[in-house]
Amino acid sequence: MEVFRAVMIAGSVSGAARLLFVSQPAVSKLLAHTETSLGLKLFHRIGGKLVPTSQALSLLEEVNHVYDAAARVDQFVDNLTRHPSGRINLCSSPSLALSLLPRLIKDFLAKHPGTKIHFHTALIQDIPQELLSGKSDLAITVLPIENPNLQTEALIRGRMVCAIPQDHSLARRSRVSLKDIAQERLILYSRTIPFGRLMLSAFERHDCDVVPVIDVPRAELACSLVRQGIGVAIVDQFSVADNVWQGIVVRPLIEEIPISVSLVRSRFGRLSPEAERFLSAVRAIFA
Questions:
Q1: What is the spatial distance between Cα 66 and Cα 161, in angstroms, rounded to a whole number?
Q2: Most buried residue, 74, 75, 94, 217, by CB count within 10 Å?
Q3: What is the pTM of this model?
Q4: For residue 77, what are the CA distances in angstroms to 127, 163, 272?
């Protein structure tokens, strides 16, 4: 499979040979053996070039899953053996990285200046893997995560709000309704992610038929589009806090759509002393 994957990535036997640091004849021989042993025609030989068959394309998808899983195992083992002193691996939902997390990190480092933090964002559906693989010690999410292998505790409640271009007619209102928004050019979270399903359910409960002009996976993308005057968006309040978006007016929704910021960690293993201190500091802030 290694030879097959290398040929698919490089697009040629010679390229695969360079990737694998072996000779071209060796690659050709192993590739032929792979086809014979699998009983599949993986490539057409056309004009001296290898053209993958539909079976090869399907096989590559499965092979990549195996390689990705192996890479996650390597990362997990690396995290088990390294445990660098004085370091916290922290991730959060993208919208919380714009204002809430920077404030939390600033307050923590003021009291623990020697601590190093690796901070990055991840979508909600990816956070369980972040924590269970050991890539992250702690996660702070804008929606709760239901997973039997994760421990979740609520920190603070919030709500969904409407982001509007500053020169839009809805910007003159103090509040807006879902029916108001449904008539506009709408930018919504993709319905394949938790936020998208949350909003779809809200519109359905209030008998609003919506067809978004653009669907996005993250709040900052929606806000960037709103700032260009493309349409209005519904985002969580934390993504538009602290006036981080010039040219956007934020209005509350008449219909309450609550959200809950949560602190999430794996049920397995022990946190480092630094991560425990950060955990305690966050709990104290929201107590």
A1: 41
A2: 94
A3: 0.68
A4: 18, 43, 16
Nearest CA to 135 out of 154, 116, 151, 120 is that of 120
CA dist list (Å): 269 to 79, 87, 150, 155:
12, 16, 11, 22
| Dihedral pair phi/psi, residue 71, rounded to 5° | -65, -35
Alpha-carbon span 269 to 133, nearest angstrom: 11
Kind plus residue range of the DSSP H or E element containing 241 = none
Question: Measuring CA to CA, which residue among 250, 218, 228, 28 is closest to residue 124?
Answer: 218
Residue 210 to residue 230: CA distance in whole angstroms: 16
Query: What kind and span of H or E run contains 28?
Result: helix 24-38
CB-side neighbour CA atoms (13 Å) of 2: 8
Amino acid at 131: L
- Per residue in 235-267, pLDDT (tens digit) is 999 999 888 899 999 999 999 999 999 999 999
> Where is 114: in which H helix or E strand?
none
pLDDT at residue 78, as a whole number: 66
Domains defined for the chain, CATH in brackets: 2-81 (1.10.10.10), 83-155+260-286 (3.40.190.10), 159-256 (3.40.190.10)
Task: Answer whether 168's CB lies under 8 Å from 250's CB.
Answer: no
Structure confidence at residue 108 as a pLDDT band (50, 70, 90) = very high
Contact predicate 159/237, CB 8 Å: yes
Q: How far apart are CA 38 and CA 147, in angstroms?
A: 38
What whole-number distance in Å separates Cα of residue 121 and Cα of residue 14? 38
